[in-house]
Amino acid sequence: MPKLFVATTSLVIDGVSVTVGDTITEGHPLMRGREAFFAPFKPTFTHSEPPQRTSIAPSSPVARRPAVTRPKPKA
């Protein structure tokens, strides 16, 4: 991916109006010889993908037999 630059001042180059905040890719003909008017682009907000889980989910709990019930007390 090419580097991006942002204009730090407004100017007109060969009839093209460039205003502060406009972005341009590295090596663009409008930027050649005018690098002083551009600064590297830094995003305001960044986003990164959450880490991928590589572990395997635990298996289902083992089915257990019901507890042996005691006989009901006689009244």
Structure description:
The chain has 75 residues and is an all-beta fold. Helix content is 0%, strand content 21%. The protein has no helices and five strands. The protein has strands at 4-7, 11-13, 16-18, 23-25, 38-40. The strands form two sheets. A three-stranded antiparallel beta sheet has the order 4-1-5, with no helix packed on it. It has a two-stranded antiparallel ribbon with strand order 2-3.
Query: Cα-atom Rg, whole angstroms?
Result: 33 Å
Query: What ranges have pLDDT less than 50 throughout 5 or more consecutive residues?
Result: none
User: Helices and strands, in N-to-C order?
Assistant: EEEEE
The major sheet is characterized as: 3 strands, antiparallel
Structural class: mainly beta
Tally the helices: what do you get? Answer: 0
In short:
The chain has strands spanning 4-7, 11-13, 16-18, 23-25, 38-40.
Topology:
Blueprint: E1 4-7, E2 11-13, E3 16-18, E4 23-25, E5 38-40
Which characteristics define this entry?
single chain, mainly beta, 3-stranded antiparallel beta sheet, two-stranded antiparallel ribbon, 5 strands
